[in-house]
Amino acid sequence: MRSFHLVGKRGAEGAKITGRPQRIADTVAGISVAGLMLPEAVAYAAIAGLAPERAILAAIAGGLAYAAVGRSRFAIVAPTSSSAAILAATLAALPGTAADKGLMATMVVALVAVLFLLAAAMKLGSLSGFIARPVLRGFAFGLAITIIVRQLPTLLGLDVHAGGLPALAGAILSHIGAANPASVAIGATALALLLMLRQFTKLPAAPIVLLAGIALSFATDLPQLGVRLVGPVAIAIELPQWPTFSFAVWSRLAQLALPLALILFAESWGTIRSLALRNGDTVDANRELGAIGLANMASALIQGMPVGAGFSAGSASEAAGATTRLTACVAAIALLVLVLTASGLVARIPEPLLAAIVIAALSHSLAPRPLRRLFELGRDGWVALGAAVAVMLLGVLNGMLLAIALSLAALLRRLAGVRIDELGRVGQSHDFVSLATHTDARRIAGVAVFRPGAPLFFANADVCVGAVTKAAAALPAGIAIVLSLEQSDDLDSSAVDALAELDTSLHANGQTLHLARAHDNVRAILARAGLDRLFAGAGFSVADAVDAFDREKTNDHAT
Hints:
Blueprint: H1 8-16, H2 19-48, H3 52-69, E1 77-78, H4 81-92, H5 98-121, H6 133-156, H7 165-174, H8 181-200, H9 205-219, H10 247-279, H11 285-301, E2 308-309, H12 311-319, H13 326-341, H14 343-346, H15 351-363, H16 369-377, H17 381-394, H18 396-416, E3 420-426, E4 432-434, E5 441-442, E6 447-452, H19 461-473, E7 480-484, H20 493-508, E8 512-516, H21 520-528, H22 532-536, H23 542-558
Parallel strand pairs: 6-7, 7-8
Antiparallel strand pairs: 1-2, 3-4, 3-5, 3-6
Helix pairs in contact: 2-3, 2-4, 2-9, 2-13, 2-15, 3-11, 3-13, 4-10, 5-10, 5-11, 6-7, 6-10, 6-15, 6-17, 6-18, 8-9, 8-15, 10-12, 12-15, 16-17, 17-18, 19-20
């Protein structure tokens, strides 16, 4: 297996473990993750209204397919809560029998796979660059809270269903008095045991708690106490038959597959990138698109569910100390062995215990430190917080889209509110720095140097020109105005027009405009625009522009 590039704290630790100890560590981590994959698969199949075995098979096939192609050492590709919810809504909107809807679900998964593979082939992974790191941190925080709240009805033994997170939270609070004491006791005890095992030992906590829950189920008549059990799981792999759907049905399936693909991309890339950032790993968006596409195709071939890199399973893999993708392979194989050899035991697992395992896997993702750090830096804190709130209130896809819009709005606000600094020379050097922050800098006689603090483009060009025009109006005629464009590697038409207007205005007042630190693209667009005077006065450094002005002044005095 090709090794994964690891840097950073956990990555450095993983890189030191080689050979047999590394394989042992990944094997233990994989078995631990399998203890989470089982309860998640059962829960998400119930959300989608499908048999548990479809989710289990999808987790096995999808996990192995991703491990063969993907590059994240933490990603566990399996059914996710968000995709299960959208699949349920998709099937509810389509007419047909239960068998028809089962086949429709398979075809939707296949269409999702095709969309991912096409996106990878077209190199659309660059679109992930619009998802800023603060957005990913907020996304991870909000998604963790969302999944935890959705597990609370199962842990409390409540039969509560609602669409959005606020409605679900309200329904839980309004029915809290009807919570089943036995379910609460099992869930709370399992959660406490999971957290203690994780804190004080290196033992795989989830399998231990699962075994304890199965033992309790044999010792006590839990259904008599109102505690729901997983129930029988029958694994039978059958290749899907090509459906005889009408064009209208295929068209409807294609329309519904697109939002499902988007939600899987948002959740999967958010998870993969968040875990990579947290551990200093390197991932490639295009490769991840292709890997998730292949995982969904594998799931479709065995009539599974849509799969993606779920945040809870990925977090569990990280917490278990995964160092390579062997963890994902072991988790998938362990899950297969579990359901083939111990299906009777699986049927006896209490559902509140499953909810506790999911909650415990996400508990460390609720640490507020990453968000608090952004506020301490004074950068992007509100963007991250907005992303978290958006995911909780609007769902994963709409929340991610709103968070991206917030990050772009913050960027435009920062660029549009450009600050203009006046520069001065440090001693006799070629260094020109802001007069406002460097007391040792001095103005040059007969020259005023200004620098926009951001690239010039349509949103800030007029503001920049206005600020320079106002500052130049207070200066005497005959002075040279130098505008440093070091932040602008290119200019759009609005910026070109604004510079032309500034040049005309200053020339009319007896002042001259020189452009400094003009990049080649800037000089080229000035030449194409016919701005010969600006092109001729465009230099590569502020010092060159000032020296050129001094030479002109010396020549004028000589004549």
